[in-house]
Design brief:
- This protein is mostly helical.
- It contains 21 helices and five strands.
- The radius of gyration is 31 Å and the shape is globular.
- It binds zinc ion.
């Protein structure tokens, strides 16, 4: 936060508190004392003041850091409770400020912009019979001339249209299951109302069969726009932690899950809607999990620990329905999330996509509730999806001439070959294999990544701690292997690409 911001009476950052303000005041006072001491010829006193100032400043910085960390944690928790609350506003602020009306003056401004006019009675029935009363039609040239006189970027001013039901602006939609029917004729104020295939009502696009296909198309487009705007703020390789990425992308969720009960209905109506929703979610999930953009929706959602949108929508519907129950909302939320985590694995087990990721993470529930969740890095995401610098993948995406391993005789360089079999990387695997006592296998990865199963842990506290510490050691060691191998493989690939000069081809990350 810029220092002057608070003094100038601007709105404080959302994590600011009275305690921080007091610390900041005392830090400023210490600074002034130190500066004044500089003018006196008292080296000892000056050193003392300097020490006091640096201590006060350090204390303030520490407090600010703590407040920021706490605030992130709170924001992350808030996302689930209120999709349009503080997290949404904080994130949307990153995308560009909106001008705010000065409070209390909204009515004055509205009155000045849209002065009230005498009520107009819309003519009903036939046009006036007298020829003198008929308005002359304007030509296209006249319209262009008038439009050219308007200054650029300006509204043309009050249009004298009173705030009433205007038949020209009214529209209707027919809700029906019938295939063969004739649109009815509606007359309002002597004018016929047009019948549309779909219509926006209270933020929901209603279509005539109540399939909500139009609505899904609109919200998924909005979510995609938000994701790509946020994606530009956040590079894949460096940038913020998974928690912050998740928070940023929760905006996409807020947009997708607007009017969730409707969404739940819509998803139930058509598989096409479910696919559209998870495709829009995929963009956000890919950003959260730092995957290649070719990763399937199923794999990206699991890596990002985001349940599919149609399950979330249904979860929100169930929570809404149960709000009258005597238990607290937090308990209901927890129970309904549990229910979602029972449905999600069914989808995961039956999908034909993400074969490798399913092998790496066979148990979604353990993955979602895993204690250490900061682990997914850009390279780890490649290891978990198989989409990365592997010749097999590059060849399939037409970025390499053949799938041969560049380091040994293996004809098919898959993620499995690179991480577990390729002799070229044997040295990197040695430490881990000495720990395990045998060569590493893909089937070891779930237990390494997800840690020991809680049910298998013993009641004996000290043994339990020992097992957990060992599991943590293995997890970190596996992370180091992945970083080392894929980091160097990426460098090799970069050299190869530069040599081949893939001019005009976009990189696929
Ligand atoms: Zn090899």
């Amino acid at each position: 936060m810029p220092r002057g911001a608070v003094l100038r009476g601007r709105k404080a950052v959302h994590w600011w508190s009275d305690e921080l303000a007091a610390l900041r005041r005392s830090s400023c006072m210490a600074r002034r004392r130190y500066q004044r001491a500089g003018r006196r010829d008292d080296a000892e006193g000056r050193a003392r003041e300097r020490e006091a100032y640096s201590a006060a400043r350090k204390e303030l910085r520490r407090a600010i850091r703590l407040a920021q960390i706490e605030s992130w944690k709170k924001l992350c928790l808030l996302v689930d409770e209120d999709p349009w609350g503080l997290p949404y506003r904080v994130v949307m602020k990153k995308l560009g400020a909106k001008t705010r009306l000065p409070e209390g003056q909204e009515l004055d401004i509205a009155n000045a912009l849209f002065p009230s006019r005498p009520e107009v009675t819309w003519s009903v029935g036939a046009a006036p019979a007298h020829p003198d009363l008929q308005a002359e039609l304007f030509s296209m040239d006249e319209l262009v001339l008038m439009a050219s006189k308007l200054p650029g970027g300006k509204a043309p001013g009050p249009d004298y249209i009173p705030n009433e039901v205007a038949p020209q602006k009214s529209e209707a939609v027919v809700l029906t299951n019938k295939w063969a029917y004739r649109d009815p004729v509606f007359i309002l104020g002597g004018q016929q109302i047009s019948v549309k295939p779909s219509m926006r009502y209270l933020g929901v696009q209603l279509d005539k069969r109540l399939n909500f296909g139009d609505h899904i198309r609109l919200v998924t487009a909005a979510a995609r726009r938000a994701v790509s705007a946020l994606g530009r703020l956040r590079p894949n390789v460096q940038g913020p932690s998974a928690c912050k990425r998740w928070l940023l992308m929760s905006v996409a969720h807020s947009k997708l899950l607007y009017a969730s009960p409707v969404r739940a209905l819509a998803a139930a109506r058509a598989a096409r809607n479910r696919v559209a929703l998870s495709q829009a979610q995929r963009g956000a999930a890919i950003r959260v999990a730092r995957c290649y953009r070719t990763v399937s929706d199923m794999a990206a959602l699991v890596l990002a620990r985001m349940p599919p949108a149609h399950l979330l929508a249904d979860e929100r519907r169930r929570i809404e329905e149960r709000k009258q129950e005597p238990t607290t909302v937090a308990v209901i939320r927890r129970q309904e999330r549990e229910a979602t985590l029972r449905e999600w694995p069914v989808i995961w087990d039956h999908t034909e996509k993400a074969a490798w990721t399913r092998r790496m993470i066979p148990d979604i529930k353990r993955w979602v509730y895993q204690p250490n969740q900061e682990a997914i890095t850009f390279h780890m995401a490649q290891a978990m999806t198989g989409h990365g610098c592997f010749q097999h993948y590059l060849w399939k995406r037409r970025r390499a001439g053949d799938p041969h391993c560049m380091h040994c005789d293996e004809p098919d360089d898959t993620v499995e070959h690179t991480l577990f079999n390729c002799p070229f990387w044997a040295e990197d695997r040695r430490e881990m294999e000495q720990c395990v006592g045998r060569p590493l296998q893909p089937n070891d990865v779930p237990n390494i990544i997800l840690g020991p199963e809680q049910e298998l842990l013993l009641d004996d506290a000290s043994r339990r701690r020992r097992i957990e510490a060992m599991a943590e050691g293995l997890r970190l060691a596996f992370g180091r292997i992945v970083e080392a191998i894929l980091g160097r493989k990426e460098d090799t690939e970069r050299v190869r690409q530069a040599r081949l000069l893939f001019v005009g081809r976009r990189p696929i990350t």
